[in-house]
Amino acid sequence: MNLDNEKLKIINWIANLSDESIIYKIKLLREQEKNTDWWDEISEAEKASIKRGLEDAKAGRVVPHEEVRKKYEQYL
Question: Per-residue confidence of the chain (76 residues) as pLDDT tens digits?
Fold first, then answer.
């Protein structure tokens, strides 16, 4: 991989972005300190979704990977 070439591809991609949420996330990435916890950077909706998922897992409301894979194999 040519690092300079990859940088130029990323610059071009960013220059053509119109999705403000992606631009905001890129800005956060640039500004964040190395010790910043990702949990502090996500939205409250994302945190709530993760918490619901953990509660579902603890309560046994999960579907085994193999079962999901069989169901969606045709799309992979």
Answer: 799 999 999 999 999 999 999 999 988 888 776 667 889 889 999 999 999 999 999 999 999 999 999 999 998 8
Residues 58, 75: one domain? yes
Indicate the SS3 state at residue 25: helix
For residues 21 and 1, membership in a common domain is answered with: yes
Q: Which domain holds residue 49?
A: 42-76
Q: Rounded to 5 degrees, what angle do the CA atoms 49, 26, 2 make? A: 120
Q: Which amino acid is at 36?
A: T
Question: For the whole model, what pTM was predicted?
Answer: 0.46
Cα angle, residue 32 at apex, residues 8 and 55 outer, rounded to 5° = 110
